Amino acid sequence: MPGEFDFIRRFLHHFPKARVPVGPGDDCAVLAPSRGALCVTTDAVVEDVHFTRAGFSPADIGHKALAVNLSDVAAMGATPRWFVCALALPRDFPAAHLSGIARGMAALAREHRVDLVGGNFTSARELSVTITATGELSRPPLTRSGARPGDWLYVSGTLGDARLGLAHLKAGLRKGGPVRRQRRPVPRVALGLLASRFASAALDVSDGLAQDLGHLCTASGVRATVELARLPMSAVVRRE
């Protein structure tokens, strides 16, 4: 059975060499920030909680694991720079599926010019991918506590697609826009950088608009008025 270092070599093969003083292979990565402050986030995707192996390809899993972290960096108005990845793998996990996870993750990393600089492998009963991502700030961070009375509330994209996609997957459907949004969420990094020039507050709304808006209002000490008819939703979500 392949050992940890075999898994590491197979996984790293799909990523370009990290542009850092010290990258994967040592006890710690060494980073060289070039701008201002750093922001750091961590999140995990866990089998049978955030995905199933029946409904997601290995590449989908790798993409989603990185995307949810890049989305948090984007919500702060930061530029993603580096990430580390910890994988917990079942003992019988196929090596080809590990390569698939790496390919999906590496494609998104290349798109956003973010480097894999380290990580860890361990065995577990269920598959999970935990990522810690770091971004650089060129302006003050967008936080949940910056909203003020009179501010306008904006959301990006359409709401409800990923949740509907999850329902479709549970019902056995494997195609369609909502399923793609569930499998391959799009981190809005460019929009986050643009918003950092104008917005007073921001947050990722992956837990749902109502819940996350409540977090923003609580942190900022404000209330929000939402006109439901004006919320952006795709035609398929409106039909459902």
In CATH, the topology of the largest domain is named 60s Ribosomal Protein L30, Chain: A
Low-pLDDT regions: none
Number of helices: 8
Highest-level CATH class of the largest domain? Alpha Beta
Mean pLDDT across all amino acids: 93
What characterizes the major β-sheet?
Answer: 4 strands, mixed
Short description:
This protein is an alpha+beta fold.
Q: Explain this structure to me?
A:
The protein has 240 residues and is of the alpha+beta class. The chain has two domains: 4-136, PurM-like, N-terminal domain (60s Ribosomal Protein L30, Chain: A); 161-233, no CATH class. Helix content is 36%, strand content 16%. The chain is built from eight helices and four strands, in the order αβαβαββααααα. Helix 2 (58-75) packs parallel to helix 3 (95-112) and helix 4 (161-170) packs across helix 5. It is globular, with a radius of gyration of 19 Å. The model has no long low-confidence stretch (mean pLDDT 93).
Please specify the SSE layout and strand pairing.
Layout lengths: L3 H9 L25 E9 L11 H18 L3 E11 L5 H18 L2 E9 L4 E9 L24 H10 L6 H7 L5 H7 L13 H12 L14 H5 L1
Parallel strand pairs: 2-3
Antiparallel strand pairs: 1-4, 2-4
Helix pairs in contact: 1-3, 2-3, 2-6, 4-5
Task: Looking at this protein, list some descriptive labels.
8 helices; 2 domains; globular; four-stranded mixed beta sheet; about 240 residues; 60s Ribosomal Protein L30, Chain: A; alpha+beta
